[in-house]
């Protein structure tokens, strides 16, 4: 019997294999792997599966610290366009994304509509540099406008491409109303949480492997309880984060009413756990872990960026608290 | 299936509404030992009449043969409706039954399983004064003499032993074999001559933990479970069997108790709201981990350290939540001098709950032991060098 778990295992294995060989797959490579169109309907050239599968790819990209435009071009753009009503322009964009001929990015916060024109400035927009089209969440919908200015914004994490996007009266070309703009942000939050789970898994694996090889005091340092117990704590946090991300991804995929709450839980917990696990990995690798060559710094920087983009843990905990106060209900 | 499950959920909810005494918490606060025992027996019978006391047992032995999914619904609903917990029957319906079903003889099952449903109580005689975390170092001996074993030694931390009719006993049958290869597993009649029980007052002031003194106690050879000298392996195989569902029940209880905490907490204080929101996420993670453990155990694909992950995370989360609850409750938590008997580990008498949380981080494999198990069995890290 082939259930969702088996499909995920297969997707995971294929993704891990590809990403181990190519640390910076470009957009056509992602499309050829079938990942840009995962959630795009089959009629438009996609695979017609759900966000749960997208989250699997995100986790593997975190594990490999992949530099790609998947977050902006697939997670965010497909989420925004899928929420818009079907139509020629929208459908062509989706088909282009599935085919790998169109790379989009989404501006979630910072730009606003006034008298049919866009104004404002959005910071740290993922994958905006070099995007073929920018989709803007504004006026309770998705907007495409002419004349947006994109200023790349370099950050310490060299695996992500970000830009500031500004508009000063940009003319609107398309404006599609969407029912739930927050859903687009929640998708990004859970995608980043999944990425952090992947980072945590990679860092724990590396630490277990290194501490089995590295000898001090005449024995592998991994045989010392202080090291073992630290790794056990990393594993427990990783397992909890993994469950929260899996549940949040499933809730988003199913359009469940508690999806925003699940997303906030996953992002707040996994965002913190990713940084803590990568930090502990650096510690347990000792002096080697602090070198540039070891590459652990790259994971730590990416984990820290994951933690802050699309809402800090504290901001997401505020959402959880508001939700509990508003509903006073138990999670089923 | 989901339709059946929602019908079952409705059935359990209706049962809870009709059967849970609304004032049981008040009535059981400061209850005498006799009142507590009587209430526990009454509640067991009530649950069993509905098929809810041993949902996990096979139908042939008087259980309900519920699926894991049904049991999850049952435990979630009992917790959400603040039902009393089965405290006295716990070892019998979980550990004893799992051991008998996995390793007992047909004769042993026939003697004991119906008796558990009729009210016989069990305790566990594993730990000893010199065998705590290093359980395999246990020194209690069982010497074969004709059709009996003669048992001598001392057991410690046997919860509920003063009420128990029977005891799951580990004793050394081959003093010359390596530690883990000379131990046998017995069913000990607690009413046998030579058995003496002494309660130990614990940190919260109650006396459910006991010492058991065994002085030339004769145990019939027919009460041996599994092969002679293979008791360690029997214990290893049966301890894990019930971990998933028992932890799931505890997680549901903690979640319900957390609901009572947040309902009374000053959420307008952003620091309090932030801490509680963090706990809410961790609780959701715990409950999800428990459900996954039950499903994976059912499907035979649970990892070697999965139960340890859940036990460790639950224990320390319980401790952190009850600690914070005590902090925000202020002096009032210190004036709660008794918690309701038959309630869970998050009764709402928060200081007592906080102190009681060490009953989770120490027994059943202390947190330090769990971390070593997770590292060595779960992650495959190098073992400690052998002690000469």
Tell me about this structure.
The complex is a heterodimer of chains A (332) and B (388). Chain A is of the alpha+beta class and 332 residues long. Chain A folds into 2 domains: 174 residues, Butyryl-Coa Dehydrogenase, subunit A, domain 1, CATH 1.10.540; 147 residues, Butyryl-CoA Dehydrogenase, subunit A, domain 3, CATH 1.20.140.10. In chain A, 55% of the residues lie in helices and 17% in strands. Chain A is built from 11 helices and 9 strands. In chain A, strands 1, 2, 3, 4, 5, 6 and 7 form a 7-stranded mixed β-sheet that branches. A two-stranded antiparallel sheet of chain A has the order 8-9. In chain A, a hairpin with a 2-residue loop joins strand 4 and strand 5. In chain A, helix 6 runs antiparallel to helix 7, helix 7 runs antiparallel to helix 8 and helix 8 packs antiparallel against helix 11. With 388 residues, chain B is α+β, with helices and mostly antiparallel strands. In chain B, helix 1 runs parallel beside helix 4 and helix 8 packs parallel to helix 10. The longest helix of chain B is centred in the last third of the chain and has 29 residues. The model of chain B has no long low-confidence stretch (mean pLDDT 94). Classes of the chains: A alpha+beta (332), B alpha+beta (388). At the A-B interface, helix 6, strand 9, helix 7, helix 8 and helix 11 of A face helix 8, helix 9, helix 10 and helix 13 of B.
Strand residue percentage of chain B:
5-15%
Rg from alpha-carbon coordinates of chain B? 21 Å
Helix fraction of chain B, binned, reads 40-55%
Mean pLDDT of chain B: 94
Kindly state the mean pLDDT of chain A as a whole number?
Answer: 95
The tally of strands of chain B reads 8
Which two protein chains have the largest interface (Cβ within 8 Å of the partner's Cβ), and how many residues from each?
A-B, 42 and 43 residues
Structural class assignment of chain B: alpha+beta
Percent of residues in helices of chain A: 55-70%
Q: What is the tally of beta strands of chain A? A: 9
Number of helical elements of chain B: 13
CATH superfamily of the largest domain in chain B: Butyryl-CoA Dehydrogenase, subunit A, domain 3
Distance between the termini of chain B: 56 Å
Order of helices and strands of chain B: HHHHHHEEEEEEEEHHHHHHH
- Please tally the helical runs of chain A, counting DSSP H or I stretches of 4 or more residues: 11
Instruction: Give the overall silhouette of chain A.
Output: globular
Tell the overall outline of chain B.
globular
Number of domains of chain A: 2
CATH architecture of the largest domain in chain B: Up-down Bundle
